[in-house]
Input
Amino acid sequence: MKPPSPAFDESKPYWILRGCADAGDEVTLRKDTQREDEIKSIKAAWEELQPGRAAKAKALREKYLARKAEEKAAKEKEEKEKEEKEKEDKEKKDKANEEAVSEQDKAGKEEKSGTVTFSVSEVVRPPSPKFYQIPSPFQPFVTGKRDDILLFDDDEQARALEEHREKVEVFYNERKVVLNGRNENRTHRNDMKEELLLTAENMQVEVDTQRQDVFVLRDTLRQKQLAEEAARLAAVEPEQNTTPSPKPTSAKKPKSPKGKKGKK
Output
């Protein structure tokens, strides 16, 4: 047997193969290449039938791998650009938050020192509403900055209640209009039903009256025809009584030959 390789690591999983053979037998240990040989023979047969098939297949494979590599590179580039854009947006946002915090701190220091600065929005802003300013420690945690945040005080609550009352009043007015229209439509449909029923009843009465008139005319004609038929029969009966009826002639019976023989 071949001596073990010095680079063999026994700490990893491995197999130990032991074989026994007679002195005159030869034992050969080699890799089983039957499957590879079959594949090579199949490829050789394909190449024999279609010369240049292997080169064409190799070129197509290289072309496919190159296209996949380009797609992968383009995808990685797009992801990298997206990450850079997100990073820039995050940096801009952090910078804006830091500027807002610094402005708040500056405004607090000015208020403490006694100097007050007015912005354009504060000058133009009407004095009646009350606005709330976010404290500087909470600025980094607020998304979607707004210049003016209105407090929900008593005046704002009264204004919201008034708006709600107006909406409810508008809704009830619209509902009242819809209900009135529905009632008018129902009344109109009931009137139409009654009118149609009355028309149908009048038509039925007229049909019954005309039918009765037809029946009366039919009975009158029938009685007239019966009277004429009775008069005709009465005129025919006396004539039948005066004319005698002819008597029927009796047929003579032929004499039988037996009677003649008896007379002789």
In short: The mean pLDDT is 79. The first strand starts at residue 131 and ends at 132. The two ends are 165 Å apart (CA to CA). Strands lie at 131-132, 149-150.
